[in-house]
Automatic annotation (TrEMBL):
Molecular functions per Gene Ontology: UDP-glucose 4-epimerase activity
CDD domains per the UniProt record, alphabetical: UDP_G4E_1_SDR_e (cd05247)
Assembly behavior: Homodimer.
SUPFAM superfamilies: NAD(P)-binding Rossmann-fold domains (SSF51735)
Cofactor(s) the record lists: NAD(+)
PANTHER family tied to this protein: UDP-ARABINOSE 4-EPIMERASE 1, UDP-GLUCOSE 4-EPIMERASE
Gene Ontology process terms (BP): galactose catabolic process via UDP-galactose, Leloir pathway
Pathway: Carbohydrate metabolism; galactose metabolism
UniProt cross-references to Pfam families, sorted A to Z: Epimerase
Protein name, UniProt field: UDP-glucose 4-epimerase
Known EC number: 5.1.3.2
Keyword terms, alphabetized: Carbohydrate metabolism, Isomerase, NAD
Length: 328
């Protein structure tokens, strides 16, 4: 049986494809290459270029490759973009997933692992936040993912689909072996932006908001290494294959760092200083969000290996330097 990875040419998806290949699984990728990069797909892994919203295409792939599991990464993921372009986010994240699910049901796919997000929680009082906390997204991005979670639960109930929803906290870093990393042009995520500033791709970076109700006034996030996140997906796959119940699980380490602490870590790892300009708040940003991690440890035998912030930053920086060398 084969695993379909949507968004497999993207940042997290490409790490997943490598992990599945390393584990000897049969993998096929669907990616529209809007942000993904073809060159990160390992040789021998079939790549279909297209949208998850194209039911004719997805149903053919699922049938042709006898897919029994879908790991669904393909999505738009930038919080401020979703504020300015909500319809784009509801289309790509919610409606295209509806189409993919229709094909999955029609072709008898058994397992569906869904990339959700901590953005479904919004500004929560609970710190760290458990999976059962109220869901009040602060951005169309978070809402688009929450709508998909709801739809997935209904589809699972009606059609017996086995599902794991993984709510990612702030994903960062790169493959420790340097095989892939975040290549997306125009990236907006904090550690990526800071790494780009180190290698001179940007003259300076900005700090969005210094008046939040947090210890140093900047936002606090739970940064998770992409390789540990991918390992959580492998645990989810084993869980479903072993007949485990449908579940929703936070993916983070249970500890938060402020924007200033992250920037300090990047400066330390780089051994250089760079300019970080203080500016106003960015729309859609909750002040602080840290994962409650009881469920991930109770449900999976997940053993994170790269949780140290300095390691996350060092791997992100190594990948950024690699990209810089390749382009010069
Ligand atoms: N930030 C800056 N400067 C930058 C980039 C980011 O100050 O150049 C700040 C942001 O304002 C925010 C923090 O750094 O306070 C983290 O921002 P990111 O853009 O790196 O990530 P987000 O928290 O906005 O969102 C990410 C993912 C979501 C996920 C969320 C969970 O994109 O999918 O983390 O917390 F839901």
């Amino acid at each position: 049986m084969t695993i379909l990875v949507t968004g497999g040419a993207g940042y997290i998806g490409s790490h997943m494809v490598l992990a599945l290949r390393d584990a000897g699984e049969d993998v096929v990728v669907l990616d529209n290459l809007s942000t993904g990069v073809k060159s990160v797909i390992p040789e021998g892994v079939p790549l279909y270029v297209g949208d998850t919203g194209n039911e004719t295409l997805t149903a053919s792939i699922l049938k042709w490759h006898k897919v029994d599991t879908i790991i669904h990464f393909a999505a738009s993921v930038v919080v401020p973009d979703s504020v300015s372009n909500p319809l784009g986010y509801y289309k790509n994240n919610t409606s295209n997933t509806r189409s993919l699910l229709a094909s999955a049901v029609a072709t008898g796919v058994e397992n569906f692992i869904f990339s959700s997000t901590a953005a479904v929680y919004g500004d929560v009082d609970m710190k760290p936040v458990s999976e059962d906390s109220p869901l009040r997204p602060m951005s169309p991005y978070g809402t688009s993912k929450l709508m998909t979670e709801t739809m997935l639960a209904d589809v699972a109930y009606a059609h017996g689909l086995h599902t794991v929803v993984l709510r990612y906290f702030n994903v960062a870093g790169a493959d420790p072996q340097g095989r892939t990393g975040q290549s997306t042009p125009g990236a907006t995520h904090l550690i990526k932006v800071a790494a780009e500033t180190v290698v001179g791709k940007r003259p300076y970076m900005q700090i969005y908001g210094t008046d939040y109700p947090t210890p140093d006034g900047t936002c606090v996030r739970d940064y998770i290494h992409v390789t540990d996140l991918v390992a959580a997906h492998s645990c989810a796959l084993n869980h479903l294959r072993d007949g485990g119940a449908n579940t929703t699980v936070n993916c983070g380490y249970g500890r938060g760092y402020s924007v200033l602490e992250v920037i300090d870590a990047v400066k330390r790892a780089a051994g250089t200083d760079f300019e970080a300009r203080l500016t106003g708040r960015r729309p859609g940003d909750p002040p602080s969000i840290v994962a409650g991690v009881d469920r991930i440890h109770e449900t999976f035998s997940w053993q994170p290996r790269y949780g140290n912030l300095d390691t996350i930053v060092a791997h992100a920086l190594a990948w950024e330097r690699h990209l810089r060398e390749k382009s010069s």
